[in-house]
């Protein structure tokens, strides 16, 4: 356990930061670079624990991946070059590795066994194994292949026309990766758009992929060709400092080179609707993704209702938005976010328990929460639930609390934001 005592600082956050690379894009760059023919260079890669599990999985299957600081060089030789891993593949805490790899492995001509940490072993995998089995995939595991560990005997798959019952980019991506190795045309329809990094990157690698409204079609007609990928800063990591600056009077912060893909910018839309002063500068498109600098200057905020189609665009930012809601006047309602219950932990319970301990007025509902602001947070002893986003939210809460916040364990932060405390120091001193 890595307990930490966080003293209140009550100082504005001032300065400029470049947050680490996007987690979703980093995973996908390793996967597509490994499947492609040729050398893929990935720069500003996120060396968090989750993405390193993806790197290790491909190394165990014979792909050469060299890492020098934040640059990866992947020597892809196409799917035929994959070898059967001798040991089970360990995915740690990473839901994205697990779900996307299940899609990818089910279409490769190898046998594998995959497993994760206790949190990942409780998270539902049937959302991917059900559609993948319809494509002919062979899985075995607990409760008919609903949970890790799972074994996979890969084979050539058949295509499907699938309407997704859950709003999940991981499910969509798993089917797209399986569709790369399926005969015929694989079609996926989403009820609500979710992050589209897999589609953007598959296009950059030359896949035969079409998008028509909420329907995506992919075939196995094109093999992937290597291309270089620059990974933008992760807006889900930037969100912690953006939110902190939004609630600490006098703050003025610029977050440089952050990914601004529209499927991810719900946090900016919500903060603007609450009254935040945010400017976007230096927008450009690199490797199919929009990036830019986010500049925020503190201004007082009001409460809001967060619901409907915006939820997938900010699903990972709900822990930090809940904290913001405790610091603004009025009642904030968050609904349609039941997916939070199956993240790294049940985030509705974790957020509610943590903020209640610190003195907030917050109630959990089945699919969200109701937060009555504004409350001066006190301090206290809280748990991170081994969840990186809950731990970082608690650290930001300590910046506005009256007394010390004692957080049981900060080691989970390494999942997505190694260097989080160093970056916080840079802007809070
Ligand atoms: C991710 C998709 C989201 C998100 C997760 C990363 C991805 O999960 O919460 O952190 O990289 O595709 P769901 O697809 O389960 O919504």
UniProtKB/TrEMBL annotation:
Pathway recorded for this protein: Metabolic intermediate biosynthesis; chorismate biosynthesis; chorismate from D-erythrose 4-phosphate and phosphoenolpyruvate: step 6/7
Cellular component terms per the entry's GO annotation: cytoplasm
Catalytic activity field: 3-phosphoshikimate + phosphoenolpyruvate = 5-O-(1-carboxyvinyl)-3-phosphoshikimate + phosphate
This enzyme's EC code(s): 2.5.1.19
Subunit architecture: Monomer.
Compartment(s) where it occurs, according to its Swiss-Prot or TrEMBL record: Cytoplasm
Signal sequence residues: none
Enzyme active site: 316 (proton acceptor)
Residues annotated for phosphoenolpyruvate binding in this entry: 23, 95, 123, 170, 347, 389
Gene: aroA
HAMAP family xref list: EPSP_synth
NCBIfam families associated with the record: aroA
PROSITE patterns given in the database record: EPSP_SYNTHASE_1, EPSP_SYNTHASE_2
Family statement drawn from the similarity comment of this UniProt entry: Belongs to the EPSP synthase family.
Residue span, Enolpyruvate transferase domain: 11-424
A Pfam family reported for this protein in Swiss-Prot or TrEMBL: EPSP_synthase
Entry keywords, A to Z: Amino-acid biosynthesis, Aromatic amino acid biosynthesis, Cytoplasm, Transferase
Record-given protein name: 3-phosphoshikimate 1-carboxyvinyltransferase
Main location: cytoplasm
SUPFAM superfamilies named among the record's database cross-references: EPT/RTPC-like
Biological role: Catalyzes the transfer of the enolpyruvyl moiety of phosphoenolpyruvate (PEP) to the 5-hydroxyl of shikimate-3-phosphate (S3P) to produce enolpyruvyl shikimate-3-phosphate and inorganic phosphate.
GO BP terms in the entry: amino acid biosynthetic process; aromatic amino acid family biosynthetic process; chorismate biosynthetic process
Matching InterPro entries: Enolpyruvate_Tfrase_dom (IPR001986), Enolpyruvate_Tfrase_sf (IPR036968), EPSP_synthase (IPR006264), EPSP_synthase_CS (IPR023193), RNA3'P_cycl/enolpyr_Trfase_a/b (IPR013792)
Any one Gene Ontology molecular-function term assigned to this protein's record: 3-phosphoshikimate 1-carboxyvinyltransferase activity
Binding locations of 3-phosphoshikimate: 23-24, 28, 168, 170, 316, 343
